[in-house]
Amino acid sequence: MSSRELSEWAAYYGMEPFGERKADYRAGMVAATIANVNRAQNSKPFKPDDFFPEPRFDEADDDEESWVKQQAMAAMITAAYGGEDRRGG
Asked: 61 CB contacts (<8 Å, ≥6 apart)?
């Protein structure tokens, strides 16, 4: 897979998440629907993320934490393909 193709897949995943986390979210939507039709009239409505521990997909990571994670992932991918870290320092 080329760097361009990997970037395209990453961009696509950013727009349309897929995989197990997305499947968990779909299951959470079903569970929330069932719980909401059976809840007391004055109680707070359930949300899909009330039914699984992962954060919601539309919640952004903290900017600094996200940057650190991205930098670490890039370093791991570079090392895995025998690349050289040219950041210096």
From this structure: 69
